[in-house]
Specification:
The chain is 49% helix and 10% strand. It is an alpha/beta fold and 362 residues long. The protein has a seven-stranded parallel sheet, with helices on both faces. Strands 2-3 form a two-stranded antiparallel sheet. Strand 5, helix 11 and strand 6 form a beta-alpha-beta unit. The longest helix has 25 residues.
C-alpha cells in the first residue's frame, strides 16, 4: 500500500509527470478515476437530478460541487472532476444552449464565415464563473490532498457540435463544411482554441490541479486532416497552458491512428480508448508521456470478477508506470455501483497483488 505520506494528489500528479515515488523505486499503485464518474449510475446523483435540471446543476456551484464529490465517497476514486458540460464554452461564445431529455441543442449553429465572426470572445470570470466557483467549493469540501480535474472540449469536437447544433453522433455537416469551406473551419478552430485556453486558465486559477481536453470526434478526421486542422488548434491550447505547470490530459476517442499526432500536441497524458493497446502505446511513445485508460465501459456491466480482471490487466500492460487507470470512455448509466467500486479497488491494488504473486512464485 502507499506510504502514509503519499496523498492522492501527489500520486496523481506524479503519474501525470512520469515520476516515481522516490528515485530508483517503483510506485506502489496507480491512481484511478472514471470518466463521467459523477452521473446517472449513482443514486445520489439521480436524487439531485430529480429536483434540478441538468443546466441548473452545472450553473449552481453548490450543486455542481455536491455531485462532483459524490464518486469520491461512493467509490473511493483518486480524483474529483468538476461537474460541467463541454458545451459551456459554445454557449459563452454566443450559441444559446438547451438540454432537453433528448440531448443538448445549440441554437444558431455555425454554418459560414459570417456566423464564425459573430461569435463572442467571452470573459470566463464573468460568463462561466460558476465553473470556477464550483471548483473552489470542491476544494473547501475535500481539502488539499485530493486532485481536482478541470476540463473542456478539444477544438475540433466543440466545432462539430457548434456546426451540427446538437450531439446525436452524426458530424457529417461539420466534415462537409471542412471540405467545402476549410478557411471557415480554420477560423472557427482558432476562435475556439483562444476561448478554451482562457476558460481552462480560469479553472486552473480557481484551483484545478489537472485539466483534460475531450476530443470525442478526432476519429472522424483522416490523418492528414487531423494534422492540418485539429493538431494546430489543440496544440495552441496545450502549449498556452504550459506556463501553469498544471498537467494536461488529452482524451481522444477511437483515435489509435492518430497516436503520433496526439503526442505531438505536447500533452502530458494521453487518454486512449479500448481500441488502443496500452502496451503498444507505451512502446511507441516511450516513457516521456503518461497514459490514461483504457477499459471498455461495457465490461463494467459484466460479472464483478471480470471487472476486477479487466482493471488489473490494464495496469499490467503498462507495468503501472506513468499510468492513470480509467475507462476508455464514459461510464454507462446502467453500470452497477458495486462494479464501479470493484473497478476502482482492483486498480488501486493491482500492482501490490501482482508483486505478491511474483514473490510467491519465486
Amino acid at each position: 500500500m502507499p506510504d502514509i505520506t503519499d496523498t492522492k494528489r501527489e500520486l496523481f500528479l506524479r503519474a501525470c509527470r512520469c515520476q516515481s515515488a522516490r528515485p530508483g523505486q517503483q510506485n506502489d499503485r496507480v491512481p484511478v478515476w472514471i470518466m463521467r464518474q459523477a452521473g446517472r449510475y449513482l443514486p445520489e446523483y439521480r436524487a439531485v437530478r430529480a429536483k434540478h435540471s441538468f443546466l441548473d446543476i452545472c450553473k449552481t456551484p453548490e450543486l455542481a460541487a455536491e455531485v462532483s464529490i459524490q464518486p469520491l465517497y461512493a467509490l473511493g476514486v483518486d480524483a474529483v472532476i468538476v461537474f460541467s458540460d463541454i458545451l459551456m464554452v459554445a454557449e459563452a461564445m454566443g450559441l444559446p444552449l438547451e438540454v432537453p431529455d433528448s440531448g443538448p441543442v445549440l441554437s444558431n449553429p455555425v454554418r459560414d464565415m459570417a456566423s464564425v465572426r459573430r461569435l463572442r470572445d467571452f470573459d470566463p470570470e464573468r460568463q462561466t464563473r460558476f465553473v470556477g466557483d464550483a471548483i473552489r467549493a470542491i476544494r473547501i469540501e475535500i481539502g488539499a490532498d485530493i486532485p481536482i480535474i478541470g476540463f473542456a472540449a478539444a477544438p475540433w469536437t466543440l466545432a462539430c457540435y457548434m456546426i451540427e447544433g446538437q450531439t446525436r453522433g452524426d458530424v457529417s455537416r461539420a466534415k462537409q463544411l471542412l471540405r467545402d469551406e476549410p478557411q471557415t473551419v480554420r477560423e472557427l478552430l482558432h476562435r475556439i482554441a483562444e476561448s478554451t485556453t482562457r476558460y481552462l486558465q480560469s479553472q486552473i486559477a480557481a484551483g484545478a490541479d489537472v485539466v483534460q481536453l475531450f476530443d470525442t470526434w478526432a476519429s472522424e478526421l483522416s490523418m492528414r486532416d487531423y494534422d492540418d486542422f485539429e493538431l494546430p488548434a489543440t496544440r495552441t491550447v496545450i502549449q498556452a497552458l504550459a506556463s501553469t505547470s498544471v498537467p494536461r490530459i488529452l482524451f481522444a476517442k477511437g483515435s489509435a491512428q492518430h497516436l503520433a499526432g496526439l503526442a505531438n500536441t505536447g500533452a502530458d497524458v494521453l487518454s486512449v480508448d479500448w481500441n488502443t493497446d496500452l502496451a503498444e502505446a507505451r512502446r511507441r511513445l516511450g516513457n516521456a508521456v503518461a497514459l490514461q485508460g483504457n477499459v471498455d465501459p461495457s465490461i463494467l456491466l459484466r460479472d464483478e470478477t471480470e471487472v476486477r480482471h479487466a482493471a488489473r490487466q490494464a495496469v499490467e500492460r503498462t507495468g503501472g508506470f506513468a499510468h492513470i487507470l480509467n475507462l476508455g470512455h464514459g461510464i454507462l448509466p446502467t453500470t452497477p455501483v458495486a462494479n464501479a467500486k470493484a473497478f476502482v479497488e482492483a486498480g488501486q491494488t493491482a500492482l501490490a497483488a501482482a508483486r505478491l504473486q511474483t514473490s510467491r512464485a519465486d
